Amino acid sequence: MRCKMLFGCVLAAVLTFVAGPASAQVVFAGQQDHPRFSVGGGFSAFDENWAHGDMYGPTIWANWHPPFMDHFYLSNLSIDAEAKDITWDKGGHPSNFRTATVGGGLLYHAHRFRFYRFEPYVKGTVSFGGINFMVGNPYYTHDTRTVYALGGGLDYRVSHRVTARVDYEYQWWPQFLGPNSLNPNGFTFGALYNFGGHWR
């Protein structure tokens, strides 16, 4: 699958690039300076579960850690908002094919598995999704769904303000053109700008 090969190549390049400035200590000294609010975006490569070949498009992220989450065992959680538009390089897909999602959920940073400047995370989101397609009926070329997704990835702290991110997402578009789900999935490579504040 082109998406997996692309992921492997890009991840290898990113790790090679960022490993140099990584310090030898396991965690940062003093407080762990996780930002309260981050925004950013990236480039997504998705297998749309429709035809052969991956499609591509932009993704926007926003992550927010409200102050109340410092308590009640919620310090590893943040609120995740995402928008994704997979529309480039149709390949074997219909000429109008496109999927777009806007929504959010929760993101869990696994602080205990942090190493050097790397930190893994998992996420779950619920989105409003729209899809364009062709199935032989010229009057039925667009539909919408509530889209559910699970995913995870790896953050790398480039600096106090900048975090590089590799993200994987698996989506469920329920009962699409029948009883089964449509399951697009793929990777996003990007970065976020971190605003002030700290997680404990």
Structure description:
- The chain is mainly beta and 200 residues long.
- The chain has a single domain, classed as Porin, CATH 2.40.160.20.
- It is built from 1 helix and 8 strands.
- It has one helix spanning 2-19, and strands at residues 37-47, 55-64, 77-86, 98-109, 118-132, 142-157, 162-172, 185-194.
- The protein has an 8-stranded antiparallel beta barrel with strand order 1-2-3-4-5-6-7-8.
- The longest helix is centred in the N-terminal third of the chain and has 18 residues, at 2-19.
- It is elongated, with a radius of gyration of 18 Å.
Label this structure with key terms.
mainly beta, eight-stranded antiparallel beta barrel, disordered N terminus, Porin, 1 helix, 200 residues
Radius of gyration: 18 Å
CATH architecture: Beta Barrel
Strand order of the largest sheet: 1-2-3-4-5-6-7-8
How many individual helices?
1
This entry's quaternary arrangement is: single chain
Distance between the termini: 40 Å
**Helical residue percent?**
under 10%
The first-level CATH class name: Mainly Beta
Measured by DSSP, the beta-strand proportion falls in over 45%
Question: On the 0-100 scale, what is the average pLDDT?
Answer: 82
Which residues form runs of ≥5 with pLDDT under 50? 1-33
Q: Structurally, how many domains make up the residues?
A: 1
CATH fold-level name: Porin
Please tell me what the overall shape is: elongated
State the secondary-structure class.
mainly beta
Element pattern in H and E:
HEEEEEEEE
Please summarize the sheet with the most strands.
8 strands, antiparallel, barrel
Q: How many DSSP-defined strands?
A: 8
